[in-house]
From TrEMBL:
Coiled coil region boundaries: none
SUPFAM superfamilies named among the record's database cross-references: Nucleotide-diphospho-sugar transferases
Transmembrane parts of this sequence: 242-262, 274-299
Keyword Transmembrane: yes
Sequence ranges assigned to domain Glycosyltransferase 2-like in this UniProt record: 11-179
Keyword Nucleotide-binding: no
Pfam families according to UniProt: Glycos_transf_2 (PF00535)
Cellular localisation: Membrane
Main location: membrane
Alphabetical UniProt keywords: Glycosyltransferase, Membrane, Transferase, Transmembrane, Transmembrane helix
Protein name: Glycosyltransferase family 2 protein
Topological type in the membrane: Multi-pass membrane protein
């Protein structure tokens, strides 16, 4: 929440992983937008864009260093290795909450509409601590991705997990909302599920997502499956309960089959079949493996949490330094279509 008459300091947190092809375009668009907001006095002149390099293997960090050398609006965090997008978001917000009144997170590909940011700030001025950017059109997605996303939201809703459908990680949060988020210390936080639990005033703004202009998606099918499992296992014990019910059902079916076999024996009808026996063995064996795997996932997460290892390690931090020492502003960088190596 912004105090009346106060000009908020804004930090835009941008997680980056191998974004060398897209970063010059993203930086130019976001810098121009920040300059417009500063000229309108919607944000302070020392507001920042914070790129979080999630252990990129290309020239992403070199580009970030070049950007911040030529324009003070750019800052960066560099991880010691790849920790994942959720960790990059948490690191960026954790650093930003110390110095900023408002924090906006947005992906580096700018498929989420950055032109929505001024409206987000106005909603914050109106009293909202959290402003969600929500897609109102998934026509750019493939049928498979659209269907699996809808199925995921349906399952989570049935499990009473409060998610915002069609919302990714494009959102505005106030300092107090981010401070509350930082009290969640899971090793693998499912941010999209945690934020709706914070309970602060919220607003939704709708937009149409744009196709990626450069580079490739950092969320292939494998990562999408892991992300869905993180959300499911972080907020519900329903899979374990489902295994219990399935086990009870199989045991009940087994008793019925046993009674049927006894009746057949009493009637003198004895049928010996290798296939039916093997089918039963394979079915029960497979079910047991599934059950053990589900339970193992929960046990593994408990094991991970008890170690209390850091969620990320920051190798370099130029964001905090920007507020603790005087930074000279030089001529803004020229953006070209091809990145400089």
């Amino acid at each position: 929440m912004i105090k009346t008459g106060q000009t908020p300091r804004l930090t835009v947190v941008v997680p980056c992983y191998n974004e060398e092809p897209m970063l010059p375009t993203s930086a130019r668009v976001l810098r121009d937008l920040m300059q417009q907001l500063m000229m309108r006095r919607q944000i302070t002149v020392d507001s920042k864009i914070l790129f979080v390099d999630d252990g990129s293997r290309d020239q992403t960090w070199a580009l970030i260093e070049q950007l911040q050398h030529h324009d003070a609006v750019f800052t960066g965090l560099k991880f010691s290795r790849n920790y994942g997008q959720e960790a990059a978001l948490m690191a960026g917000m954790q650093a930003a909450q110390q110095f900023s009144d408002l924090i906006i997170t947005i992906d580096a590909d700018l498929q989420d509409d950055p032109q929505l940011i001024p409206q987000m700030i106005e909603q914050a001025r109106a009293g909202s601590d959290i402003v969600y950017g929500v897609r109102n059109d998934r026509s750019t997605d493939t049928w498979f991705k659209r269907s699996t996303a809808q199925g995921f939201y349906w399952i989570m809703r049935k499990l009473s997990v409060n998610l915002v459908p069609n919302h990714s990680d494009f959102r505005l949060m106030s300092r107090r909302a981010v401070s509350a988020l930082m009290q969640y210390h899971e090793a693998k936080p499912f941010i999209r599920g945690i934020i709706p639990q914070l309970g602060f005033p919220t607003t939704k703004l709708f937009y149409k997502r744009q196709p990626r202009q450069a580079g490739t998606s950092k969320y292939p099918l494998r990562k999408m499956i892991h992300f869905a499992l993180d959300g499911l296992l972080s907020f519900s014990t329903a899979p374990i309960r489902a295994v219990l019910y399935a086990g009870i059902g199989i045991c009940g079916t087994t008793l019925i089959m046993l009674l049927w076999i006894l009746v057949q024996h009493m009637r003198g009808v004895v049928v010996t079949g290798w296939s039916s026996i093997m089918l039963s063995v394979w079915f029960l064996g497979g079910f047991q493996l599934v059950a053990i795997s589900i339970i193992g996932e929960y046990v593994g997460r408990i094991f991970t949490e008890t170690k209390h290892r850091p969620r990320f390690i920051i190798q370099m931090d130029t964001y905090s330094a920007a507020f603790t020492q005087t930074t000279s502003l030089t001529t803004p960088i020229r953006f070209e279509n091809q990145s400089t190596r």
